[in-house]
Design brief:
The protein is α+β, with helices and mostly antiparallel strands. The protein is built from ten helices and ten strands.
């Protein structure tokens, strides 16, 4: 039994994204929240759980509020980076060259933090406004400081170690995301270990380089299967593991097919790529038969969004 099934049409998604692109272009970006809202509603309507369909109930007003606040935060980071660089340069009696050398580091650090905050609120907003047709809601209960710290440190350490730290970063993020995601009275748990994935990851990276990227198909399959096969659902003291049946042939057809579509269409076929990816990956995820959501949480249990609700 599939835990989540997608029946997405590449052509329909293209029509939505094409109209969205025109609206964003002619509105000089102001229509982005409206456009993204349309796409999220369509994708949610194309998905279904074992007992019901999904729907996205985010409001356009909240989208616009978050969109404006995200730009304000980005401007504050840019302005703060410039001001801090100048301040440090003056304090050290350095010339403008020293300031210019310091500015990229401050800017990259600020933008990385901005990305972590943006990602957190985008995830929380989307998950907390997702529900099934039977009114069983999803919740994301993570804290901003914990999520931002985990993401910031993980990306930084992965870069400093030339991606050697990535399996630990991935495992920590998956465990944190699962722990803080709820579906009705169902909780998620990730049981994977970085030590389990590290040998597979290192072998995949080295062979991908040696084979000029060909082995990345196997790495993609192993990455996806690791993420799913160590994920389980807990309900009323019952643990139900998820399993991934993505094989090498499926991964090959998906990745090579997507590459051909993007190349021949000069990028215009991204909607078909996204539809193929969602349809293929969702079909490969299964859980045990007989799983039921025995009761639903009310909307009052969903935490309110904070003052900053970006929707990117």
């Amino acid at each position: 039994m599939n835990i989540l099934a997608f029946q997405t049409s590449g052509w329909q998604l293209f029509r939505i994204r094409f109209l969205n692109a025109l609206a964003i272009l002619f509105s000089i970006g102001l229509a982005y929240p409206w456009a993204k809202n349309r796409e999220l509603r369509y994708l949610a309507a194309c998905a279904s759980t074992p007992d019901a369909s999904l729907r996205f109930n985010g409001s356009l007003k909240t989208f616009y509020s978050g969109f404006l606040q995200s730009w304000i935060l980005c401007f504050l980071i840019l302005a703060g980076s410039v001001a801090l660089g100048i301040l440090v340069g003056k304090k050290q009696q350095a010339d403008l060259l020293a300031v210019y050398q310091l500015f990229p580091f401050i800017l990259v650090t600020g933008l990385l933090y901005f990305t972590s905050v943006l990602l957190f609120h985008a995830l929380r907003y989307r998950i907390n406004h997702l529900e099934t047709s039977s009114q069983i809601s999803f919740r994301f209960t993570a804290g901003q400081s914990d999520f931002a710290g985990l993401y910031f440190s993980g990306v930084l350490l992965s870069q400093l170690t030339l991606s050697v730290y990535f399996p630990w970063f991935l495992t920590r993020m998956l465990r944190y995301m699962a722990k803080n995601t709820h579906w009705g009275n169902v909780t998620f748990e990730f049981t994977g270990s970085a030590k389990q994935f590290f040998p597979t990851y290192i072998k995949g990276v080295l062979l991908s380089v040696l084979t000029l990227g060909i082995y990345s198909i196997w790495l993609y399959k192993d990455f996806f299967n690791y993420s799913i096969n160590h994920l389980q659902l807990n309900q009323d003291r019952q643990s139900i593991p998820l399993t991934s049946q993505l094989n090498t042939l499926d991964a090959f057809q998906l990745l090579v097919g997507n590459a051909i579509i993007l190349t021949l269409s000069l990028g215009l076929g991204y909607s078909w790529v996204k539809a193929r990816t969602l349809n293929t990956l969702s079909k490969s995820i299964h859980l045990s038969e007989g799983f039921l959501l025995k009761e639903a949480l009310t909307n009052d249990s969903i935490p309110k969004t904070s003052w900053f609700r970006p929707t990117l």
